[in-house]
Write a structure and sequence with these properties.
This protein is of the alpha+beta class. It has a single domain (2-83), classed as Double Stranded RNA Binding Domain (2-Layer Sandwich). 27% of the residues lie in helices and 22% in strands. The chain is built from two helices and four strands. It has a four-stranded antiparallel sheet with strand order 1-2-3-4.
Length: 93
Amino acid sequence: MTMLRRRWFGAAAGLVASGLAAPAFVAPAAAGLTFEVYQDAKKEYRWRLKSANGQTIASSGQGYKAKADCKHAIEIIQKEAASAKVVEAAEKG
């Protein structure tokens, strides 16, 4: 689970959750992870990735006008995350 979590963090680092609306769509879970699609206050669709214990561990950095575009972003992450590189950021001076 730790290695999988690191890969997800590497693929989605720096993304911030926003909005607390109820999920409009929940993608199938893999290894206890769940994608939720919801509408934010601006009526844009966003996704958040939750761990088995319900904590948000990653989220979309942008809103999508169409739900289909949001779901497509999830599909890309699901497809590409397993082979994503993990790099360490250089320390500042």
